[in-house]
Amino acid sequence: MEMIEAVRPTMAGAVPTIWTDVLHYLRDNPGHDVSSLKLVACGGSAVPRSLMTAYDELGVRIVQAWGMTETSPLAAVALPRNSDTPERSLYLRGTQGRVVAGVQARIVDDAGAEQPWDGKSVGEIQIRGPWITGSYYEHDTSAVSPDGWLRTGDVGTISPDAFITLTDRSKDVIKSGANGSPRWSWRTSWPLTLRCAPPP
After folding, report:
1. CA–CA separation, 123 vs 112, rounded Å?
2. Which of 2, 36, 168, 171 could form a disulfide with 155 if both were Cys (CB 3.0 to 4.6 A apart)?
3. Distances (CA, A) of 79 to 25, 162, 195
């Protein structure tokens, strides 16, 4: 809080748990000024809709960002258009967004066939671009398709207007200190959900 008030940033980024803690601090300690913040890019896990609406009330817009180490780190940002209705805007901010300039995306089914961007067809999201990983240590290319697309392991859809929505993981495990299922993280999109964690 001291840094936000002293430096007065207009944009910031962090994982949802950080912004949840900041929100609790603001509610428990009224009088702090975060009015300089206009946009927060949030990633690392699904952003709860309740967190987005709570910050909307403070005049701070949270948008979801999607990426991984292999994308250095950003691949997509959920920035709605100015013409979107408030309801549509909130929905789009809950997606993983559209790929950033220079990055391409596609959906591939289990048989390796490319799927349409219709918001319904489900498959692995694959990406490529100038800064997207093409191989791993000692030239391990197992995570890259023969035609050069990074196999992200994330499963989802892409809408006709290019918004990615993740629904699952093809490799159903999260490695973060301990292994867990990512299916729990998607439940943060439920309106009254604040945080989710897999059972031990």
Report:
1. 9
2. 168
3. 27, 11, 23
Task: Name the helix (H) or strand (E) containing 6.
Answer: helix 2-7
Q: What counts of helices (H) and strands (E) characterise the chain?
A: 5, 12
Cis peptide before 198 (omega within 30 of 0): no
Q: Global pTM?
A: 0.81
C-alpha to C-alpha distance for 144 and 68, rounded to whole angstroms: 15
Inter-CA distances, 159 with 21, 62, 80, 105, Å: 32, 21, 13, 12
* 155-185 residue pLDDT tens: 999 999 999 999 988 765 444 444 444 554 5
* Cβ(140)–Cβ(156) below 8 Å: no
Each residue's pLDDT tens digit, 101-158: 999 999 999 999 999 999 999 999 999 999 999 888 888 888 999 999 999 999 999 9
From residue 109, give the alpha-carbon distance in Å to each of 55, 138, 142, 144. 37, 28, 17, 15
